[in-house]
Amino acid sequence: MSDVKTLSTTAPVPMSRPLLGWTFHDSVVIARSTILASCRIPEALFFQLIQPVIFVLLFAYVFGGAIPIPGADPGSTADASLYRQYLMPGIFGQTVAFAAAASTVGLAEAMQKGIIDRYKALPMSQSAALIGNTFANALRQILVLVVLSITGYIVGWRINDGILNAIFAYLLLLLFAYTVTWVGAFVGLSVPNTETANTAGLIWIFPLTFLSNAFVPLDSLPSVLKAFAAFNPVSSLVLATRELFGNPTGYAPGTVPEFWSLQHPILYTAISCSVVIGIFAPLAIRKYRNVSRR
Amino acid sequence: MAKDDAVHAEGLVKEFGDVKALDGLDLVVPRGKVVGLLGPNGSGKTTTVRILATLLKPTKGAAYVNGFNVEKQADQVRHSIGLTGQYAAVDEFLTGRENLRMFGDLYHLAPTYVKDRSEELLEWFDLVEAADRPAKTYSGGMRRRLDLASSLMAKPSILFLDEPTTGLDPRSRLGLWGVIESLVAEGTTVLLTTQYLEEADKLADDIVVIDHGRVIAHGSAEVLKDQIGGDRIEVTVADFDRVRDTQVVLAPVFGGESMIAESMVSGPVSGGSTVLVDVVRLLDSQNIAIADLALRRPTLDDVFLSLTGHGTEDETPGKSASRPRKGRSQS
Fold it and tell me: What is the rounded CA–CA span in Å between residue B11 and residue B7?
């Protein structure tokens, strides 16, 4: 701010239109910044990683013995190991569902701090802030899945059905993460402040993940809850990844799940992800356009 | 003509449910000028800026920025403006340099230009040393400078500054004023909202006073001061406990229009310096010791008070030109 220096007077040089269009360009800029920013908060990432690890240990060693898996001998060490095989895809499914909370809190904060105001006053794509944010939060799950897989490996979880199927399972988990981040984005733009975002971001995820086959076989649930859980996309996601990883599915060999959604878990997961994105992405973008801090 | 002005707004109305934030506001900012939008909290300053910056749509009325309609040509408007909000809107986890580059990219500027412009702005705003630190480690003044630098990436011809110095310490405020003055010297048009009368007085060519979403006065600072006319006398008493007595004693001089601010009593007078003698004599007769006595021209504070019947309701404690008026009372 010295008086001697003056700013250059050359006109600003515009960028030529990128090949993939402005929305893609702007989304990449936002995603890059979001990831860069999250690297500056190692403690947040640490807690995001520590929670699923605690769940693994808790279920593997505390509850695991009490939850029987069909096809195993209850109380035996073989049964405990089988439960851990059964458990890990459930933890994967639950963990990626929490990607939504990062979008909720991130966008509520951006709104409260006025960053969204600044974005909206820029000549950038009006959906890029959301596409970039949701994409970055889904991408972050790669790191979470790596750490979880290693933890799982240590407690006895294994990939039993080839690397290609395993990659497919991981991709399915990331698709699910990307799907819920859109729901999270919508919630984040709808809450009045960041304090509410911290609660509202999580409140629907716990029942969603617990009312599923993530930790217990569906047959152990009362019938009404069972029907709900069967059509909960978390259940189909978890069953699909169990099949793709070659882990116990919770169904005795030869038996077929009674619900269509679980007979075709990959298809049902893909359909429900598309439907949820199809509903929540336009909703969130519309909310973003109309949102104002006051 | 609407197209020639940097900002031209006519009959802006904005309703939030039952609340009318703007109630037929007209505003013109000629090119190359600084217009100060002055008003208390809730008067509609921020709503006005948000409409002009395309963040809100008016319920009624039309506004043009750089000749473009803010509703129908929002993208062209966004290319012409820079917005610095009340809260420093930078990503606090990104460094200063990363923030500038991100906003440059989002303005769709060429990568080499973004790089050069970022360095230039970092230097100009005295942020070179802090350039690689996350913005959350910055002081309030540094953040505000980074915020302003971000809105200058594309060299906008029109700058909206929404309470740019609210909450800053006096030194940072002076620094930011210097920056704004240099930008204006280079031809940037500025619309500035403020509740600091001193700020509007110092920076603005024209002042538009708004209250309850409506323009209640406008003109240069001098014109506005002349409108309420009259000199004022300010008496600061040595003994705070006697400030009420002072007001009572001086009632004949001020004609019942005096007010108290801490240990100072002030009021309008006619007759200029001869009244000073009366004041001294009256106070002396009551043995009230005077710490300071001044005859002064009205400030924008007084203008504001006389126009709105209430003060600027300054929320921010600390140094500002608007003196606290909590002790205002008729005697």
Answer: 13
